[in-house]
From TrEMBL:
Compartments where found: Endoplasmic reticulum membrane
GO MF annotation, one: monooxygenase activity
Chief subcellular location: endoplasmic reticulum
InterPro entries, alphabetized: Cyt_P450 (IPR001128), Cyt_P450_CYP7A1-type (IPR024204), Cyt_P450_E_grp-IV (IPR002403), Cyt_P450_sf (IPR036396)
Chain sites annotated for binding heme: 425
Residues that coordinate or bind substrate: 103, 109, 276, 366
Protein name: Prostacyclin synthase
High-level lineage: Eukaryota, Metazoa, Chordata, Craniata, Vertebrata
Signal peptide: 1-19
Species this chain originates from: Seriola lalandi dorsalis
SUPFAM superfamilies linked to this entry: Cytochrome P450
């Protein structure tokens, strides 16, 4: 009896220690949830958008929630985002992707590596090398599309749009950056894609540590297989990989990363560079196909470009000035890009909100922005935010619209698919160029249509909020064939 009482007292004490945290007056509203330690983790993981919208209604634009032992302060006022994005003294620049990958792979990169790797990426993806990347990816896209649909095939081919977009863009991106040849079995892009899709499907569960035993085994073997497939990538200068990947490998080696760390880091880069473009293209094409007026407008803009086809300027350059396409893409991303932007609070910080309120952030907590809720889906900023309106980002005179308002004040951040500040996406321009080239090729050279003309866009897979581009639950069936131009 006495032992039972002792155990109960100990359990109660432990519960108290694990759950005790009270809000001081200067801190944001605190919501620990009912479950000790776990807090809101389950609801957060199941559908972060729904959960954070509920918390916003309850607490307002800033609040702290407990999730799996961590305290996360969520900020949802875009007028105050700079407070989190610009403060590198109190808030550590930690990429969410990196945090996840570290958790999934138990990956420990050398201390200096992330900064040097970033500088290297900026050089390769944003500088002079961008033109070379654009034309390489264009060449691969053309060849892959041709292989899908040979010139002599005249009938329709049916496919899920998500699979179609993801597989072709993944393979073209993989060939461009990681090298390897078609039909060379050690690094055949189709095998890499097949394995990668399985890995991607388990990603959210891996990151949250909620894999079932069977899934754990699959995840393990898929990672092994991917590591084998990626083993040659970037190793030698003639491995067919991009100069970026070769440089990245050298950097890892110079910093003393062992084989195991190297292969994990290369897989992380595969995820960072290939995980978003295919899904983004799916949403864009899906919205265009289900909104005929939008499709017509983009096709009209592209047809003006294709009429200049005989001119001296290469296609990649002619495709630069496409405001209608730009707006159509921006709008698709507004609706489906949902990354968390996170920071580690490394030094106690007073956060000054745009409305004049001040809040104290505790060292050791995490800070999280979720631009998907605001600005992107905020009805005060976007009328009927759930609706796809291809010309939302165009002014009446056809120029790019950059003025959006909340509370009567112009917003600096009105949509944030690429993140912002120091850890914003370095591949943004390359990604936009790739998507534009692909959509151009498909819409000018092929007839592409919905199998069911009344089909609607599929629902979103709610477990992926926070992981970058969303993915659909199911697919949208389309058919395509070579256009009869002659
Ligand atoms: C539609 C496509 C894409 C979207 C929506 C996207 C979005 C993002 C976002 C939101 C981040 C910041 C993540 C964070 O805060 O942790 C990011 C980071 C990054 N992206 Fe992209 N991205 C795309 C395509 C690409 C491509 C094609 C590349 C490279 C070829 C790329 C390379 C990177 C890298 C290297 C980072 C990390 C930057 C750093 O370490 O600071 N992305 N991307």
């Amino acid at each position: 009896m006495i032992w039972t009482i002792c155990l109960l007292v100990q359990a109660a004490l432990l519960y108290f220690i694990l759950t005790h945290r009270s809000r001081s007056k200067s801190e944001p509203p605190l919501d620990k949830g009912l479950i000790p330690w776990l807090g809101h983790a389950l609801e957060f993981g199941k559908d972060a958008s729904k959960f954070l919208s509920r918390m916003k209604l309850k607490h307002g634009d800033i609040f702290t929630v407990r999730a799996a032992g961590r305290y996360v302060t969520v900020l949802l006022d875009p007028h105050s985002y700079d407070e989190a994005i610009k403060d590198s003294e109190c808030l550590d620049f930690t990429r969410y992707a990196q945090v996840l990958m570290e958790r999934i792979f138990n990956l420990r990169l050398p201390h200096h590596q992330p900064h040097k790797a970033k500088a290297m990426m900026t050089k390769h993806f944003m500088g002079m090398n961008l033109d070379a990347l654009n034309s390489t990816v264009s060449r691969h896209l053309q060849a892959l599309l041709k292989a899908e649909m040979p010139q002599n095939r005249k009938d329709w081919k049916e496919e899920g749009l998500f699979d179609f977009s993801y597989s072709l863009l993944f393979k073209a991106g993989y060939l461009t950056l990681f090298g390897g040849e078609q039909n060379n079995n050690s690094s055949d892009p189709s095998s890499v894609y097949e394995e990668y899709k399985k890995f991607d499907g388990l990603l959210t569960k891996m990151a949250r540590g909620t894999l079932k035993p069977e899934e754990k085994r699959t995840a393990h073997s898929v990672q092994q297989r991917l590591w084998e497939l990626l083993a040659p990538a970037g190793l030698t200068e003639d491995s067919g990989s991009s100069p970026w990947l070769h440089g990245y490998r050298r950097l890892l080696q110079e910093e003393g990363a062992d084989e195991d760390t190297q292969r994990k880091a290369i897989l992380m880069q595969l995820w960072a560079t290939q995980g978003n473009v295919g899904p983004a293209t799916f949403w864009l094409l899906g919205y265009l196909l289900t909104n005929p007026e939008a499709l017509m407008a983009v096709k009209r803009e592209f047809s003006q470009i294709s009429q200049m086809e005989t001119s001296e300027t290469p296609l990649t350059d002619r495709l630069m000035n496409t405001p209608v396409f730009g707006s159509a893409l921006e709008e698709a991303l507004r609706l489906t890009a949902a990354p968390f932007i996170t920071r580690e609070v490394v030094k106690e910080k007073t956060l000054h909100m745009a409305d004049g309120q001040e809040y104290l952030l505790r060292k050791g907590d995490r800070m999280c922005l979720f631009p998907f809720i605001s600005p992107q889906m905020d009805p005060e900023i976007y009328h009927e935010p759930q609706k796809y309106k291809y010309n939302r980002f165009l002014n009446e005179d056809g120029s790019v619209k950059k003025h959006f308002y909340k509370g009567g004040r112009r917003l600096k951040y009105y949509t944030m698919p690429w993140g912002a500040g120091t850890n914003g996406c370095v591949g943004k321009q390359f990604a936009i160029n790739t998507i534009r080239q692909f959509v151009y090729m498909v819409l000018t050279n092929y007839d592409l249509e919905l199998c069911d003309p009344n089909a609607q866009m599929p629902e979103v897979n709610a477990s992926r909020y926070g992981f970058g581009m969303l993915q659909p639950e199911g697919d949208l069936l389309v058919r395509y064939k070579l256009r009869n131009t002659h």
